[in-house]
Write a structure and sequence with these properties.
TIM Barrel; two-stranded antiparallel sheet
Length: 205
């Protein structure tokens, strides 16, 4: 089971998550997010990471040229587009995770338009926030979505429910931010370790 720890804002959290076995770390470049990080700070953290960690830049309706600039500054390996980006914008980048805020199963029809994405991240819909709400995603919808693309399951995952989520959905990967935080932008290291252990152990069964 592949695991992405998102909303990384400091070196301690990044190195700890990597050491616990996280496969990917997410850096949010959306200024309105409470987990926002500057490109220069992200670059500093990324430069200290061990090899084989996938670094993901999270953007919301950002101009493609600015995304390219941040890729150059930070060296991030993948782009996660979490807004209303078109398939044409997604096609500008080599490795794209397209995020979808899903209200109900009818929203899955939009996934077909993004067949060029490396994976689709499913998150719980909120009018107020682009992710990080802590609301649990409908796992039945995620199971149906697997017929259409690689699924990264997000939305309300915690150390207490991730094992059940992995058993039920069998996604390509799981993604967590608020579910392993002590406060917004700062991880609870015990929760990070427990989340990764439970997701990995269950995913191997």
């Amino acid at each position: 089971m592949r695991i992405k720890i998102c909303g990384i804002t400091n070196t301690e959290d990044a190195l700890y998550a990597a050491g616990c076995g996280a496969d990917a770390l997410g850096f949010i470049f959306y200024p309105e997010s409470p987990r926002h990080i500057t490109p220069d700070k992200a670059a500093s953290i990324i430069s200290q990471l061990p090899p084989f960690i996938t670094t993901v830049g999270v953007f919301v309706n950002e101009a493609p040229d600015r995304i390219m600039e941040i890729i150059q500054i930070t060296g991030i390996k993948a782009v996660q587009l979490h807004g209303n980006e078109s398939p044409e914008i997604c096609a500008k980048f080599a490795s794209v995770i397209k995020s979808f805020r899903i209200k109900d199963i009818t929203d899955l029809k939009q996934l077909a338009e993004y067949s060029g994405a490396a994976a689709c991240l499913l998150d719980t819909y909120s009018e107020a926030e682009y992710g990080g709400t802590g609301r649990i995603f409908n796992w039945d919808i995620a199971v149906e979505a697997k017929k259409m693309c690689r699924i990264i399951l997000a939305g309300g995952l915690t150390p207490d429910n991730v094992a059940e989520a992995v058993r039920y959905v069998r996604p390509y990967a799981v993604d967590v931010s608020s579910g392993v935080e002590a406060e917004k932008g700062k991880k609870d290291l015990k929760k990070v370790k427990k989340f990764i252990e439970r997701a990995k152990t269950t995913g191997e069964k």
